[in-house]
Amino acid sequence: MNIITSFSLLSFKQRIGLLLFIVPCVFALLAPLLVAGSPHDQSLMNTLQAPSAEHWFGTDHLGRDMWLRLAAALQVSLGISVVSTLFATGFGTLMGVLSAQYPKTADKVLNLISNLFLAVPGLLFILLFATIAPGKLWPLFLGVSLIASIEMYRVVRAQSMIIANRDAVAASQLLGFTPWYLLQRHYFPELRPIILRLAAFTLATTVLSVASLGFINIGVKPPRAELGLMMIELMPYYYEAPWIILQPIITLFILVLGLNLMIGKKK
């Protein structure tokens, strides 16, 4: 199925959501190529400037270019969120199918582990990882990925249990087909729509989690830019320069709205 065919199967709402998601992604990749400089360069003589020909999105309280800062923040937020979602989707799906295939062994162990993780609120669990190495990205990625993996595992496991009890799967097992064949022939075709919708939801949740941690100054540390961190840094200047605080807020809103619109069913 090519890209054009896949796009034609999307509902109008999903197309709008895909467009809203693509725009910030393209901006994050291309914006630094259009304006020279660094998102960390300061100019105390040019603080809180309005958008102009020199600074397209204005400058912040330290005179840093908001165009470059916003692009850098999107790169960090999307980088962590996309990698975490890909890991959680692959790992959670694999564990969910494994539980369905081996209900007497693997399912008991994996279900126990998932229940232990679910006993702790997800955001608190991420906070614990983030405090291990403040300012580093890997604890943030690890915490977000594990929580997302557990959620993915629970959903995939429930659906895989239904598939595993079907006669077609039992017949394939009796004929000696490999687990990889079962995954490709029986599990993946039915799990794919669920996994894609859940991945979009997980990505939206992860973006919000990363921004929330930055907002309470636990995730990404200055001078690195991140959407939540930018909000808390620019909050004291909302009256003097409201346009700068609105930029990360609107960007985060567009990202999450686009992903949530993409969750709906196809035509």
Write the layout of secondary structure elements.
Layout: H1 3-8, H2 12-34, H3 66-101, H4 106-118, H5 122-130, H6 138-164, H7 167-174, H8 179-215, H9 227-234, H10 242-261
Helix pairs in contact: 2-3, 2-10, 3-4, 3-6, 3-8, 4-6, 5-6, 6-8, 8-9, 8-10, 9-10
Question: In the CATH hierarchy, what is the superfamily?
Answer: MetI-like
CATH class: Mainly Alpha
CATH architecture descriptor name? Orthogonal Bundle
The topology string of helices and strands comes to HHHHHHHHHH
Please mark out the parts with pLDDT under 50 across 5 or more consecutive residues, or reply none: none
Helix and strand content put the structural class at mainly alpha
| Major sheet description | none
Number of strands: 0
| Separation of the first and last Cα atoms | 15 Å
Helix content: over 70%
Strand % is under 5%
Radius of gyration: 22 Å
**CATH fold call:** MetI-like fold
Mean pLDDT: 86
Number of helices: 10
Shape annotation: elongated
> How many distinct folded domains?
1
What does this structure look like?
The protein has ten helices and no strands. The longest helix is centred in the C-terminal third of the chain and has 37 residues, at 179-215. Helix 2 crosses helix 3 (66-101) and helix 2 (12-34) packs across helix 10. The protein is 70% helix and 0% strand. The mean pLDDT is 86. The protein has helices at residues 3-8, 12-34, 66-101, 106-118, 122-130, 138-164, 167-174, 179-215, 227-234, 242-261. The chain is an all-alpha fold and 267 residues long. It has a single domain, classed as MetI-like fold, CATH 1.10.3720.10.
